[in-house]
Amino acid sequence: MRAVNIQNDVGPATSLFIDTIAEPSLSPGQVLVSIKAFGLNRMDLLQREGKYPLPPQAPKTMGVEFSGKIEKVYNEAPEIESFKVGDEVFGLAYGGAYAERIAVSAKMIIHKPKKMSSEEAAGVPEAWITATQALFLVGGFKKGERVLLHAGASGVSIAAIQLAKNAGASEIYVTAGSQEKIDFCVKELGATAGFNYKTQDFAEEVLRLTDGKGVDVIVDYIVGQGYLEKDLRCAAFDSRIVILAMMGGAKTEDKIDVGQILRKRIRIEGSTLRSRTPEYQQLLRDRLVEEAMPRFEEDSFNIVIEKVFSWKEIIKAHQLMESNQTKGKIICVVD
């Protein structure tokens, strides 16, 4: 089958090309999906550059989210029962989605609604499952709480804005790098307010708008220096800070006031999704099916796609993601 590969195993976007590799074989509990579309994620850029440690079960081929049609099923596992050959599905994988076909656990696929396009479906799994994990399982969000989401126009935060609003957040604040992105989050997605992290001190703004109380849940990607220090300043008592990435680097030069962590009883927790067990990921998938799929069906949740490429334009797709100028998902169609 055809799949996207990297010349010399690691390199810049221009090193990507479509190669021929062996078709994956099925194991108990898996299905073989013919891929129609796949979504890009920042971990793909890091993996391409050799900077992302892969979980042991991940194949060499990039890509963790996809949509497509089931070609084969392995009939010796109970989780297969609700799926059959010909079903249109979308799902999350440990890797291998930049390809014509993928072998994936039936625990991590979802039936695609007829009204949802293949491109839209391919943009759901990673962003919406990560947002569900960050807000609810790790962040412990409760109805009526205030939320701060960094990188507001990213796929995960776009999902988190809508999930938090649906779950009864009293206020939802975002940060972004342009007024266009802030306006998108506020006017189109329903965030309460947004702040330009390049020109504003978001901690001061949050405290001003909350009468000094701060926010209860913060989802951060540590985009730049100073983020964690500002998170602590605008965190409320008994708040939770969830760190999902380290876009600004693994080390910080911030002067952290540890006293704030103690005084406010702040819990700081790092979290990843790809390294989690299939059982943990299935719990998140099930919660997404229960809470989000009905909203997708009634069009009250918005799947935001920046641009759709042919997978033959994978170089351009990666370069667009590297530009940091996007809102929502970048999708590639396998044609």
UniProtKB/TrEMBL annotation:
- Superkingdom, taxonomy of origin: Eukaryota
The record, for SUPFAM superfamilies, names: GroES-like (SSF50129), NAD(P)-binding Rossmann-fold domains (SSF51735)
InterPro entries listed in its UniProt record: ADH-like_C, ADH-like_N, ER, GroES-like_sf, NAD(P)-bd_dom_sf, Quinone_OxRdtase_PIG3
The record's Gene3D superfamilies line, in alphabetical order, gives: Medium-chain alcohol dehydrogenases, catalytic domain, NAD(P)-binding Rossmann-like Domain
UniProt KW NADP keyword: yes
Arranged from A to Z, the UniProt key words for this protein are: NADP, Oxidoreductase
Q: Which CDD domains match?
A: p53_inducible_oxidoreductase
What SMART domains is this protein classified in? PKS_ER (SM00829)
Please name the GO terms that the record assigns under molecular function: NADPH binding; oxidoreductase activity, acting on NAD(P)H
Q: Where is the Enoyl reductase (ER) domain?
A: 11-332
List the Pfam families.
ADH_N, ADH_zinc_N
What PANTHER family has UniProt attached to this entry?
QUINONE OXIDOREDUCTASE PIG3, QUINONE OXIDOREDUCTASE PIG3-RELATED
NCBIfam families registered for this protein in UniProt: quinone_pig3 (TIGR02824)
Q: What is the protein name stated in its UniProt record?
A: Enoyl reductase (ER) domain-containing protein
Task: Name the species this protein comes from.
Answer: Arthrobotrys oligospora (strain ATCC 24927 / CBS 115.81 / DSM 1491) (Nematode-trapping fungus)
